[in-house]
Structure formats: C-alpha cells, structure tokens
Amino acid sequence: MSIASEDVSEAIFEIRDLLRLLAEPVVAERDQRRRGEVKRIVGSSVPKAKSILLMDGTRNQTTIHKETGLNAGHLSTLVKQLSKAGLLVGDTKLPKLAIVLPSNFFEKVN
Questions:
Q1: CA dihedral sign, ordered 93, 98, 103, 107
Q2: Domain limits of the chain?
Q3: Which of 7, 9, 86, 94 is most buried (CB neighbours < 10 A)?
C-alpha cells in the first residue's frame, strides 16, 4: 500500500471514529432496552464484560476464552443467553453483537 493510500485510510478511520462518537447518544437511546439486557446478562462479571466487547464476529469462542480468561463453559452459556435474547447476529461460533457498544460501556459511573 502506498503512503497516500495509508494516509487516506487513516483519515477515513478517524472520520468513522468521530462519527461514532457523535452518534453515540442517539444509538444509546435507540438501543436502550437491548443494552439493558446486555448489562443484565453480564451482571458484575468483568470477564463476561470483556468477552462481550470482543464479540465482533472475527473471534471464535476459543479465542475469546483465551483473551479474557472466562471459563469456556461460562462463555458458551453467555453466548447462548445473548443468542436467545436476540443480541447476536450470524453464527454463534463467531459471535457478533447485534448492537454497537462503546469500549467504556461496562465502566461504573460514580
């Protein structure tokens, strides 16, 4: 890839990230019920929260298990719960959330 192509790609990614930031309040309102269901399923489990943030359709359950340390059985149950709640799209072998969550979604607000 040439330098100019890399610069254009970088600019596009920056624009995408800015648009996501600007759209977040509207997306949060639209997905309020579904986001609430995600929080209910995760509870206070940090490994589950980390696992959900990795569910972008590019990682299988084994990879997510290795990256987060969540017990493989618990991860499988989590994926089943998300799927049953309609929060996943596509194949559960490569879980992908049906909604977009910001990276700080599970952080506690004091």
A1: negative
A2: 1-30, 34-110
A3: 94
Residues 63-100 pLDDT 10s? 999 999 999 999 999 999 999 999 999 888 999 999 98
Whole-angstrom distance, CA of residue 92 vs CA of residue 90: 7
**69 close to 51: Cβ distance less than 8 angstroms:** no
What are 14's two structure tokens? 């920056």
85, 37 contact by CB (below 8 A): yes
Q: Which of residues 88 and 17 earns the better pLDDT score?
A: 88
- d(CA 110, CA 102) in angstroms, rounded, equals 18
pTM comes to 0.72
Rounded Cα–Cα distance for residues 9 and 24 (Å): 22
DSSP state of 56: B
Any idea which residue has 């490569």 for tokens?
94
Q: How would CATH label the architecture of 34-110?
A: Orthogonal Bundle (1.10)
Find the distance separating the first CA and the last CA of the chain, reported in whole Å. 45
